[in-house]
Each structure stands twice: as structure tokens, then as C-alpha cells.
Amino acid sequence: MRIIDRYVLQSFLRVLVICFLSLTGLYIVIDTFTHLDDFLEIANQQGSLLGVLTEYYGARVLAFFDRTSSLMTLVAATFVATSLQRSNELPALMAAGIPKARVVAPLIGAALVVSLLAAANRELGIPQ
After folding, report:
1. Which residue range forms the structural domain that includes residue 67?
2. In which band, very low, low, confident or very high, does the pLDDT at 46 lie, cut at 50, 70 and 90?
3. What's the total number of domains in the chain?
4. What is the pLDDT of residues 91-124, one digit of tens each?
5. I need a surface site. Which of 12, 50, 68, 70 has the fewest CB within 10 A?
6. What is the pTM of this model?
7. How far apart are CA 98 and CA 79, in angstroms?
8. What residues contact residue 96 under an 8 Å CB cut-off, 6+ apart?
9. If DSSP codes are grouped into helix, strand and coil, which group holds residue 47?
10. Of the candidates 33, 25, 26, 30, which has an alpha carbon nearest to the alpha carbon of residue 49?
11. pLDDT band at 128 (very low <50, low <70, confident <90, very high)
12. DSSP of 79-119, one letter per residue?
């Protein structure tokens, strides 16, 4: 694996993780405040609001990843590709003789890995 491949993959993973955490956090906050009365009622019976929220959203996060993984992959790949162009790294690589297809090949591979992770999540994580 070349240095540029590691750089592109690192940028992709960073954007993907930030996108996933921010969207998941936003989903949890909005859904929590929407159903806060129900959570407080259940927490009075079971004892801990944090335990109820962890149990409830632990399973929801897997389903949320399943629904949004394709969108987050698209956003991350697009952001990395445009970032390479905007910061003039792509023209410099092309001037060095590296074709565009070679630069974005790690993005395509990473998108395939995320798709496989989503499929594994559907088969192994969500049914439990």
C-alpha cells in the first residue's frame, strides 16, 4: 500500500466516522427528547435512566447504521475527492503521472468494505 493510498483511506475513515457519530448523536438526541416521558416512566420502574437509554439505543444504532451506511459512504467519498481537488493535491498527483483512477481506487475499495460491513450487520448484528 502506497503513502497516497493510506492518506486517502485515512481521510475517508475520518470523514465516515465523524459523519456517523454526528448523525447518530443527532438521531439519539432528537428521539430521546421526543420519547422522554416514556423513558422516565420506564426508568422509574427499572431504576436507571442511563441503563434504559443504553439498552434501547444500543440496538437502534445498528439499525441506524444499516439505513445510513450508503449515504455516509457517498458523503465521505465525495468529501475526500473534492478535498483532494480543492487543496490542489489531485493536480499535483496527476502532474506526477498518477491517474485519477489510481487516486480514487482506495475510495472504491473502502466503499466496498463499508457495504460488506453493512451486509454483515444486517445478517449478524440486527437479528440479535
Report:
1. 3-125
2. confident
3. 1
4. 888 898 889 889 899 999 999 999 999 999 999 8
5. 50
6. 0.86
7. 20
8. none
9. coil
10. 33
11. low
12. HHHHHHHHTTHHHHHHHTT--HHHHHHHHHHHHHHHHHHHH
State how far the alpha carbon of 93 is from the alpha carbons of 1, 26, 69, 71, 76, in Å: 16, 37, 29, 28, 20
Residue 60 contacts by C-beta under 8 Å, 6 or more apart in sequence? 27, 28, 31
CB 75 within 8 A of CB 19: yes
Residue that is written with C-alpha cell 441506524 in the block: 64
**Cell numbers representing residue 39 in the block:** 423513558
Spatial CB neighbours of 69, under 8 Å, sequence gap ≥ 6? 114, 115, 117, 118, 121
Distances (CA, A) of 74 to 70, 77, 104, 127: 6, 5, 13, 26
Grid cell, residue 45, equals: 420502574
- The length of the chain is 128
CB atoms inside a 10 Å sphere around CB 46: 10
